[in-house]
Amino acid sequence: MMKSALFLSALAFFSSTKAYTIPQSKRTIDIVGKSRGSASHYSSSSSSSSSSYSSDYSSITDAEVLNYALTLEHLEVAFYTQGLANFSADAFAAAGFAAAVRANYDEILSHEETHITLLQSVLEEMGADIVQECTYDFSGSVDVASFIAMSAAFETVGASAYSGASELLSDRELLPAASSILSTEARQSTWIQSTVQHLNPWSGAFEVPLTPNQIFTIASNFIVTCPSSNPPIAATHAFPPIGIPTTAAPGASVQLSFDLNETSASDFSELFVAFLTSNGTIFEQFSSSDSYNVTFPTQEEGLLGTVFVLIVNSTTEAVTDATTVAGPTPLMFPFNATDPQIEALFPN
Predict the structure, then answer these.
(1) What is the C-alpha to C-alpha distance for residues 302 and 344, in angstroms, rounded to an integer?
(2) pLDDT averaged per 10 residues, the chain (length 348)
(3) What keywords were assigned to this record (predicted)?
(4) pTM for the full model?
(5) What angle (nearest 5°) sits at the alpha carbon of residue 212, between those of residues 210 and 216?
(6) Which of the four CATH numbers 1.10.10, 1.10.1740, 2.30.30, 2.60.40 does domain 253-343 have?
(7) What is the dihedral of CA 288, 221, 69, 53, to 10 degrees?
(8) 213: left (phi over 0), alpha (psi -120 to 50) or beta
């Protein structure tokens, strides 16, 4: 059972008031794995997305959380291994980057490989089955610039993944290791955004925590298939994707694209757009009852840095799996900290 997914194909960079998005093209994804029972456990299928999602992770085991983290680490290692094989030191130099930039990417790959070793060793000590690598598609990484942009997205999403999953661990002795990986992902994201891309090094005072299923929605854009023998992970499904044009900007009217038939919503009027930011969640209504146009919040309202855009069915409670209808799609809205309007948002 499969669904169409929007996928990477090209990158667009804009001024400080425009976004760059993870570029996307369309194809199908098939993701399978062993269930807690016997049927397919996690997938990005339209049938699963039409069901009523629960935000209750109380039955998730520590092994499933660690295998979820390991799934993401495998994804990152595959991305960096392929990218560094494709883009030599000369390619980085030709793109205008110092030799130290590619050398630091070699170190990031080593960090992610070390994370895999750690997670595997902990799972072995627990006597748990261990997930193996999936098959991936990084076709959006077509040159050094797009490789760098994708790496920034992976590291930022990785920090949000660990932020959201840490609370699911029942064994508190596992938290120091999870926290140390989280901080490393955040440091790597900061280095890429500030030193390599010359953008804002952070989005605000906090990371944006995302649930395993929300993270898996993003990760499934790059996963073609996983071994059927893989054990269950904390993520059980991917939500339908949201397409966002590269013209999206704070304060702009933007037409989103998603397939209402793939969602759990029965009525378009029930839906809202949620913007998860470092400084909190912003909800917006669609501009009319028969279009997917929405006016994005302004910078003054907090649309800065990394933002995750979702379609939700409620504005009266926190964004959870139960209220998520589609997405998230990550965006970056770069900002200049010396801009008086930005300075006013962060008073001393």
Answers:
(1) 11
(2) 29 35 37 39 34 63 98 98 98 97 98 98 97 96 96 96 94 94 96 94 92 96 96 94 92 90 71 94 86 91 94 90 94 75 54
(3) Signal
(4) 0.84
(5) 100
(6) 2.60.40
(7) 40
(8) alpha
